[in-house]
Amino acid sequence: GKCVALGDWDLIGFTFTSPTPYWLIDHERREAKHERPEGRGRCWTSEGTTAVPTEARAWLAAHPTLLDELRALPGPRAWRRTILMAHDPPFDSGLDLRWGNQPVGSHDVRHFLLAKQPAISLHGHIHEAPLLTGKPLHIVGATYGFNAGRVRQGARALWLDPDRPSDYKLFEGK
């Protein structure tokens, strides 16, 4: 993670996610607040341009938890003037809804957002969430959380003024 000053706002980036159904697991961390079933068995990590086979449970157990990684982020000047950009959305927030109305976000990200209360959080990972909920904005505690998602044909972009996050604009195009 890294913290960058943007005027009187701070932007913190965080790339790790909770375990996914995918096979390359370099950016995955197990959850501290919720144990997810891990049924993948053998996966791969990358070493430069080479994929190296590994066993998922052992690899995840050998690394810090997602919550540990979040707590290790550099501190901003003020959380209420901070934008947290975390790939994984918080659990059961509307930002993490999958087909079948199943919330699949991170319990650790949710816990961290509720504890730190950044003004804004930006997420991805669950691309269909805003299509299912009908909106890219969901409030988690005092945090305005966004997931722009995607459309089947084309791209989506989110524009917002951090001083007025409820006045966001969502653009779609090919």
Quick recap:
This protein is an alpha/beta fold and 174 residues long. Helix content is 16%, strand content 36%.
Word description of this protein:
With 174 residues, the chain is of the alpha/beta class. The protein is built from 4 helices and 12 strands. It has helices at 56-61, 66-71, 107-116, 129-133, and strands at 2-6, 9-14, 42-47, 50-55, 82-86, 97-98, 102-103, 120-123, 137-140, 143-147, 155-161, 164-173. The protein has a 6-stranded mixed beta sheet. The longest helix has 10 residues, at 107-116. The radius of gyration is 16 Å and the shape is globular. The mean pLDDT is 90.
Terminal-residue CA separation: 32 Å
Percentage of helical residues? 10-25%
**Structural class by helix and strand composition:** alpha/beta
What fraction of residues sit in β-strands?
35-45%
Strand order of the largest sheet: 1-2-5-8-10-9
Q: What's the average pLDDT?
A: 90
- Rg for CA atoms: 16 Å
Q: State the order of secondary-structure elements, H for helix, E for strand.
A: EEEEHHEEEHEHEEEE
DSSP strand count: 12
Provide a count of the helices.
4
> What form results from the Cα inertia axes?
globular
Largest sheet: 6 strands, mixed
Low-pLDDT segments, ≥5 res: none
Layout of SSEs?
Layout: E1 2-6, E2 9-14, E3 42-47, E4 50-55, H1 56-61, H2 66-71, E5 82-86, E6 97-98, E7 102-103, H3 107-116, E8 120-123, H4 129-133, E9 137-140, E10 143-147, E11 155-161, E12 164-173
Parallel strand pairs: 2-5, 5-8, 8-10
Antiparallel strand pairs: 1-2, 3-4, 6-7, 9-10, 11-12
